[in-house]
Amino acid sequence: MKHDRILLAHGGGGALTHELIEKVFAPAFDLGTLEDSAVVEFAGQRLAFTTDSYVVKPYLFPGGDIGKLAVCGTVNDLAVQGAQPLWLSLGMILEEGLPLADLQKIVASIKTTAEEVGVKVVTGDTKVVERGKCEGLYINTAGIGRVVTEQPLGSSQVRPGDTVVVSGLLGEHGVAVMSRREGIAFQTSVVSDCAPLWQLVKTVVDSGAEVHAMRDPTRGGLAATVCDFARVSQVGIRLQETALPVSPAVRGACDLLGLDPLSIANEGKLVVVCRGADAERVVQAMRSVPIGRGAVVVGEVIEKPKGLALLRTAIGGERIIDMPTGEDLPRIC
Amino acid sequence: MGGDPRRDGIAGSGALKTLVPMLDTLARRVGRDVNLMEVCGTHTMTAFRSGLRQLMPKSVHLISGPGCPVCVTDTNYIDAAIALCRRSDVIVATFGDLMRVPGSESSLERERAAGADVRVVYSPTDAVALARENSGKKIVFLGVGFETTAPTVAASIATASKDGLKNFFVLAAHKTMPQALEALLRDQQVKIDGFICPGHVTVITGAAMYRFICEKYRIPCVVGGFEPFDMLKAAEMLLAQIADGRAEVEIEYSRSVNDRGNVAAQKLMAEVFEECDAGWRGIGNIPRSGLTIRAKYAAFDAVPSLGVQFEPARPHPGCRCGDVLRGVITPLDCKLFGKACTPTEPFGPCMVSSEGTCAAYFKYGKRAAA
Amino acid sequence: MCLAVPAKIVELQGTAATISVEGALREVDVSLIEEPRLGDFVLVHAGFAIHKWDQSEVDEWEAIRAGMGLPGVVP
Predict the structure, then answer these.
(1) Is position C25 within any domain?
(2) Does residue C75 lie in a domain region?
């Protein structure tokens, strides 16, 4: 069945999102290799430029809120391109009826997070839509940063022999947010891992390790990230199931609902693909920063099968890690 | 992919390490190719997610049967659910599994995109709660699933009845295992040497239910659990039976399964549901393999209460889900697999269901062209 | 078909129990189980407990999980 309308799954960050970009947006604009931010040259400087929209529901969740998410998400898209975040714009779309107290809480959160990162919100815009036309509020941002890394970074730079490192526990944000969705209702101690990654990235870069690609695995989780890297660089990536860092609480929630931690969103984790010989250096660098204390090697880049991500399972079998389709739907079967 | 995953990767202590060589030994004793069929979508998933087949001897073929309730649900059921969700006074509540299943022209996911009120729930009790919270609407819960799920739906109908709810309905399409297993064995094209029986169905029904298969057809049955270890152990027990020439019901999943099953659940099912004939997608009508809501609870049955009509089922041309479901072909033999039929644009339920054989092949292992 | 997970009863009132799957909490119906008690391990499917494990059965599951390098019960 061909899709003639937008489905929720088109926003999931997985296969359908990619399809949408490839069929609708990429033909119209020169978007390069679709990294988290674009690197542009201006007045002898390399600048990173990104944009994001935040529509998370509910807008206040365990471990954060849409404001904190907006700053972190944008800053992180710059950071993974090796760019120090400098300036943000803030576009707010508010729903008629939104409690002012909630808006103030969110704005305070934006201020605190921006100060923590050292990024300045320099311009903004506000619109109000009728009750029911958005869920509380939506935020759009644009971010500009200065690229500080010399080496080329991106999903096309991944090479056989490289190592894949993640900075900590997977699936925290997605599980925290899902627990508040109607119809699914479960309680969990899991809170969103929403956090800015610039300090972590800088530490990794400053360690002198040869880094080839970095990403914050948001929608679609680590699965989407490694699928992208494998496809764009035309290499194989093999992860070890027993090496994946997943907390018991996240595993429990996934077991209950029939979900896979690999494909659940993270908002404060860094994936680094580095030259194999530098893996230990990257891990130690990450662990020297609080949000990277759980850093571990999770896999390696191999020559074949080209374009596919694989998982070596706990019992010694192997399976393909597929690009998540989009919506995390709990199942009974 | 260097090294032999069967030797290198076997993690942990004792049991798993001895199991794989034991499977090899038994396979040699059996001395011929055998087909072991599992009939539970969750078993299909476990096998694929763990890469289990790579640990099995080459002469032992694990094939997937019609154990995915979503896959065996006919297109016309989805069409009926879609007709309901298009009514402005109806909220359709469903397990996530059904959202992306294609009907003749649309799916619940697409209907939701077009404005219909379709809600994903984790439990039928969530649907009852929706009925309490939305007294101005009719809540229709899509009741699919085998004997594991049917008691939970029966319990929800019983609760709705006790509480006098007037706006809770179930569109029932539950199916039961035993007659389906027999239909498979009578199918000339399907060759089965042993069944890995569905663990959680048997928690409810009790293992004694499978004895007639052993007695009438001389096929061994082992009730298996859902850890990869459980499936390997169940395969070992089946091979041992085949090598010995035995045909018995054995329980691998002994921590959850016994001969009698869950009597309270059985009583509740019998109170709310009665046996009926049912159409299984790709297999056809199997007598006495379905559950329908008893007349006593007609007020909660969407069919009489909401005037639901079932059109005759119209399968897509070229779709071979039926043959895949019966284990006659693998997805690789279907011309549509991986080309016209993919997880993002599925033709049939085997591809769209999270447990469907085609989806499992696509996501976890084999691709047509690779 | 039939995703059912082992879970521990951490609260109990009549036929309504709160179960914990390694910390993920959810209310489930225990009316299909005989004599459920606080601390019991049950198999949960679609919001209902369908079977109760005794300690030897919990131990068996833990041994299987340990054998595969996966966590069992979280203390």
Answers:
(1) yes
(2) no
CB contact (8 A) between residue B114 and residue A5:
yes
If 0-12 CB within 10 Å is exposed, 13-18 middle and 19+ buried, where does residue A124 land? middle
What is the pTM assigned to this prediction?
0.85
Residue C32 to residue B227, Cβ atoms within 8 A: no
Identify the weakest region by mean pLDDT among A140-154, A316-330, C27-41.
Answer: A316-330
Which class for A95: exposed (0-12), middle (13-18), buried (19 or more C-beta within 10 A)?
middle
Q: Is residue B247 part of a domain?
A: yes
Question: Which positions in chain A touch B10 (Cβ < 8 Å)?
Answer: 315-316
- Tally of domains within chain C: 1
Testing the interface with A: which of B38, B64, B70, B120 to mutate, by most A Cβ within 10 A? Answer: B120
DSSP 8-class letter at A288? T
Q: What is the mean pLDDT of chain B?
A: 89
- Range with the poorest average pLDDT among A29-38, A73-82, A95-104, A202-211: A29-38
Q: Helices (DSSP H) in chain C: which residue ranges?
A: 55-67
Residue B210 lies in a domain: yes
3-state secondary structure of A19: helix
C72 belongs to a structural domain: no
> Does C61 reach chain B within 8 Å, measured CB to CB?
yes
CATH number (domain holding residue C30)? 2.30.30.140
Q: Is residue B275 part of a domain?
A: no
Q: How far is B69 from chain C (nearest CA, A)?
A: 7
How many inter-chain contacts (A to C, CB under 8 Å) are there? Answer: 58
Q: Which CATH superfamily is domain A37-147 in?
A: PurM-like, N-terminal domain (3.30.1330.10)
pLDDT higher at B172 or B69: B172
Task: Give residue limits of the domains in chain A.
Answer: 37-147, 163-321
CATH number assigned to the domain comprising residue B16: 3.40.50.11750
Q: Is the pLDDT of residue B196 over 90?
A: yes
Distance from CA of B194 to the nearest CA of C (A): 19
Candidates A15, A323, A18, A306; CA nearest to B369 is A306
CA distance B334 to chain C (A): 23
The ipTM assigned to this model is: 0.91
pLDDT of residue B314: 67
Per-residue pLDDT at A180: 73
Tokens representing B51?
């890469």
Assess if residue B126 is contained within a domain: no
A126-145: average pLDDT = 92
CB A71 within 8 A of CB A88: yes
Q: For strands C24-29 and C16-21, give the pairing.
A: antiparallel
How far is Cα A284 from Cα A292, in angstroms, rounded to an integer?
9
Question: Taking residues C34-39, what's their average pLDDT?
Answer: 94
**Chain C CB contacts of B229 below 8 Å:** 64, 67-68
CATH superfamily of A163-321: PurM-like C-terminal domain (3.90.650.10)
pLDDT band at residue B370 using 50, 70 and 90 as cut-offs: very low
